[in-house]
TrEMBL record:
<keyword id="KW-0130">Cell adhesion</keyword>
<feature type="domain" description="Cadherin">
    <location>
        <begin position="384"/>
        <end position="494"/>
    </location>
</feature>
<keyword id="KW-0812">Transmembrane</keyword>
<protein>
    <submittedName>
        <fullName>Cadherin 7</fullName>
    </submittedName>
</protein>
<dbReference type="GO" id="GO:0045296">
    <property type="term" value="F:cadherin binding"/>
</dbReference>
<keyword id="KW-1133">Transmembrane helix</keyword>
<dbReference type="InterPro" id="IPR002126">
    <property type="entry name" value="Cadherin-like_dom"/>
</dbReference>
<dbReference type="InterPro" id="IPR027397">
    <property type="entry name" value="Catenin-bd_sf"/>
</dbReference>
<feature type="domain" description="Cadherin">
    <location>
        <begin position="79"/>
        <end position="159"/>
    </location>
</feature>
<feature type="domain" description="Cadherin">
    <location>
        <begin position="494"/>
        <end position="604"/>
    </location>
</feature>
<dbReference type="GO" id="GO:0005509">
    <property type="term" value="F:calcium ion binding"/>
</dbReference>
<keyword id="KW-1003">Cell membrane</keyword>
<dbReference type="InterPro" id="IPR000233">
    <property type="entry name" value="Cadherin_Y-type_LIR"/>
</dbReference>
<dbReference type="GO" id="GO:0000902">
    <property type="term" value="P:cell morphogenesis"/>
</dbReference>
<keyword id="KW-0732">Signal</keyword>
<feature type="signal peptide">
    <location>
        <begin position="1"/>
        <end position="26"/>
    </location>
</feature>
<dbReference type="GO" id="GO:0007043">
    <property type="term" value="P:cell-cell junction assembly"/>
</dbReference>
Length: 803
């Protein structure tokens, strides 16, 4: 049995040759022989012969990437049991056996049949065994050995992380580290120099350098300026074999970007700016935008602006546009060309983020001058007051002057002003304004009780002339608040409609009602009303009135013993006088109803009492009532019978006949029926219908006749644009006066052909009219079949049946 395998250097292989004669396995790498050592374990197949054996192992080495045409010889296996008589057979198993490695079963020679790649697999573990050729019984225990693939320089260095992107601040000192690159070589680092790599820079000098062993890239020039060049592309090479001749190499690119630092101050593109703005520019509007250039980017280019001095303090302000870094000048106060026509400003721009490392490069600020010129525009008129309050009495006559509004032209031209009222604020046109003077006057009588305050909008416009087709849009407006003062023009009346109840058991001097009054007027000193009974009732014996001196009055009884049967209602005229100047009064009637009340004075029933008829017994009253009922029943029966006897053909007026179908089983007379309906009415333009003839029945007499020529002109004599209109109007009037027309809107259809054709009407119906000049006498000669037509249209005697 195989106890162990021990590796021996190649130098010891020569010592193994004498062991072959002693019957052991051994290996000679030069000859490929594997021989048995006498220090092996006892052979289990040799019964009583227990010779102690040991095994010596040496690795097989195979060169990778062998390009020969023949299989590559690896080594030889040999057993001392093999006497050379062919009874022993060698068997190989393990990694790559039969697919990569083969063994000659007779001689034990091992060959590699494929190219090996150390980078794919560095060694192979195989097992060898000697067996009896006939019985396949092992004559030696299984032995394991290793075939190691020997490396050659067949892989170039590779940058697994490339290409690289790196950045370094501009103006960096010499030797500043930028980035470190690294290349890997797949060859064996423990064998030779195949995997030992050195770095060099191929492209990118003299700006950058690379350390050969570490791959660290550093700046090779100081103070590189981003504004001059902001990006560099380097090519770095890695070469194995320590850079010696014949080594393999690989390259990668490194893009180095110079990052910005604040090393440039802002600079105005112009030292003097001039801008022109209209004097009507609204507040907070942009007056101008100025720009200061800064070669830096990002936060290093941010800047602040300020107004250092100028002749318009508080007129302007300047801010920074955060997106464009422009200076924005904003108007804070209104401009007035007539007051000041130009402004001069001095503005400074300063970097917001200053790097102390570059202060030596100079001040990071700049200044410029800005001149703002105000352009004169035609400004709208200016009212002396935006709100005018006026008072007018409601009894003012039409044309009374109330007050005056005033406006002036702020421009140097000082044009005249025209005034007008916005009629949307004076829809009923109570007021007028003088266009030239601005005096407001009344145009209608005023009523304070209807509208006590009028809010007018007055327009002011320059009165100078404008080009034809144009008008001034420079309008200004003012509010005129007109208050209508009160006069005493309304008499006082009862505050409410009183319902006064008087108990029959009321005592003399009892208060039955307390009344008050209201007045639409509003005197400054407040209302004061006086109450008294009107003259007709001043001396009555039933009631009296007491003025309470607080704008109320009490109605009292003068007597008792009121009876409903005697008089159920009393009407008491009350005179109310106000305290105005002149005083106004009104007489109001207070209705007092006499009621039957309980002991607490609560009314139970009021009004007149029905008297019971005397002299008739209850039986007589019932008999009279029975007769009346009998008469009513008879009348109802008669009416019902008459309705059943004659059912009307037309439905009741309150029903809509359009919702019903009336069927008439009446057949027409066919072609011989010439009087069932007159079709000429719908087609002949020159025939006027008799308005007195019913149209819902068949006429008994001819329905057409001639009117005198002076009554109406013929349609044929009318112009074409009038004939249709006259025709429609005539039919409309006929339908309006027709008693048989339905009481609702209906559709009238007229087959009107007109009279504009050169050939005139082709309808034979027109021949029925009396104006027809066609001679149909020849019809009587056509035989009995045309007798009807000859009678209708023939005119042998020179007269018409409708004449």
């Amino acid at each position: 049995n195989l106890r162990r395998w021990r590796a021996r250097p190649l130098a010891l292989l020569a010592l193994l040759f004498p062991l072959r004669e002693r019957g052991c396995w051994g290996l000679n790498p030069s000859s490929g022989d594997l021989e048995k050592s006498p220090r092996s374990d006892p052979d289990p197949w040799e019964g009583l012969h227990r010779n102690k054996r040991s095994w010596v192992w040496n690795q097989f080495f195979v060169l990778e990437e062998y390009t020969g045409n023949e299989p590559l010889y690896v080594g030889k296996l040999h057993s001392d049991v093999d006497k050379g008589d062919g009874k022993v057979k060698y068997v190989l198993s393990g990694e790559g056996a039969t697919s990569i490695f083969t063994i000659d079963e007779n001689t034990g020679d091992i060959h590699a049949t494929k190219r090996l790649d150390r980078e794919a697999q560095a060694y192979y573990t195989l097992q060898a065994q000697a067996v009896d050729r006939l019985t396949n019984i092992p004559v030696e225990p299984r032995s394991e050995f290793v075939v190691k693939v020997q490396d050659i320089n067949d892989n170039e260095p590779k940058f697994l992380d490339g290409p690289y992107l790196a950045g370094v601040p501009e103006m960096s000192p010499l030797g500043t580290m930028v980035v470190q690159v690294a290349a890997t070589d797949a060859d064996d680092p423990t064998y030779g120099n195949s995997a030992r790599v050195v770095y060099s820079i191929i492209h990118g000098q003299p700006y950058f350098s690379v350390e050969p062993k570490t791959g660290v890239i550093r700046t090779a020039l100081p103070n590189m300026d981003r504004e001059t060049r902001d990006q560099y592309v380097l090519v770095i090479q890695a070469k194995d074999m320590v850079g010696q001749m014949g080594g393999l190499s690989g390259t990668t690119s490194v893009t180095v970007t110079l990052t910005d630092v604040n090393d440039n101050p802002p600079r105005f593109t112009h030292k003097n700016y001039q801008y022109t703005v209209p004097e009507s520019l609204p507040l907070q509007s942009v007056v101008a935008r100025i720009k200061a250039a800064d070669a830096d980017i990002g936060s290093n280019a941010e800047m602040d602006f300020r107004i250092m001095d100028g002749d318009g303090p508080g007129m302007f302000n300047i801010t920074t546009d955060e997106e464009t870094q422009d200076g924005i000048i904003i108007l804070l106060k209104p401009l007035d060309f007539e007051t000041k026509s130009s402004f001069s400003l001095r503005i400074e721009a300063t970097n917001r983020n200053i790097d102390s490392n570059f202060l030596s490069l100079g001040p990071f600020s700049d200044t410029t001058s800005v001149k703002v010129t105000v352009e004169d525009v035609n400004e709208p008129p200016v009212f002396s007051s935006p709100l005018s309050k006026m008072v007018v009495s409601e009894d003012a006559r039409v044309g009374t002057s109330i007050g005056r509004v005033s406006a002036h032209d702020p421009d140097n031209s000082n044009n005249g002003i025209r005034y007008s009222i916005d009629r949307n604020t004076d829809l009923e046109r109570f007021f007028n304004v003088d266009a030239m003077s601005g005096v407001i006057s009344t145009a209608k009588s005023l009523d304070r009780e209807a509208n006590s305050v009028h809010n007018l909008t007055i327009f002011a416009m320059e009165s100078r002339k404008f080009a034809p087709g144009t008008r001034s849009h420079n309008l200004s407006q003012s509010i005129s608040l007109i208050t209508v003062s009160d006069i005493n023009d309304n008499a006082p009346v009862f505050a409410i409609d009183y319902e006064t109840l008087l108990c029959e058991n009321a005592l003399p001097g009892q208060v039955i009602q307390t009344i008050s009054a209201v007045d639409k007027d509003e005197p400054l000193s407040g209302h004061r009303f006086y109450f008294a009974l009107a003259a007709p009732a001043a001396g009555n014996l039933n009631f009296t009135l007491r003025d309470n001196k607080d704008n109320t009055a009490s109605v009292l009884t003068k007597r008792g013993g009121f009876r409903r049967r005697e008089q159920p209602v009393y009407r008491l005229p009350v005179l109310i006088v106000d305290s105005g100047s002149p005083a106004l009064s009104s007489t109001n009637t207070l209705s007092v109803r006499v009621c039957d009340c309980d002991s607490d004075g609560v009314a139970l029933s009021c009004g007149a009492v029905a008297y019971t008829a005397t002299g008739l017994s209850t039986g007589a009253l019932l008999a009279i009532l029975g007769c009346i009922m009998t008469l009513l029943v008879m009348v109802l029966l008669i009416v019902t019978m008459r309705r059943r006897r004659k059912e009307p053909l037309i439905l009741e007026e309150e029903r809509d006949i359009r919702e019903n179908i009336v069927r008439y089983d009446d057949e027409g007379g066919g072609e011989e029926d010439t009087e069932a309906f007159d079709m000429v009415t719908l087609r002949n333009l020159n025939v006027i219908r008799d308005p007195n003839v019913r149209r819902d029945v068949t006429p008994d007499t001819p329905t057409f006749f001639h009117y005198p020529s002076t009554s109406r002109p013929s349609y044929k004599s009318l112009p074409d644009n009038v004939v249709f209109r006259e025709f429609i109007w005539e039919r409309l009037k006929d339908a309006d006066v027709d008693p048989s027309a339905p009481p609702y809107d209906s559709l009238q259809t007229y087959a009107f052909e007109g009279s504009g054709s050169v050939a005139e009407s082709l309808s034979s119906l027109e021949s029925l009219s009396t104006d027809s000049d066609q001679n149909y006498d020849y019809l009587s000669n056509w035989g009995p079949r045309f007798k009807k037509l000859a009678d209708l249209y023939g005119n042998s005697d020179g007269t018409s049946v409708f004449s």
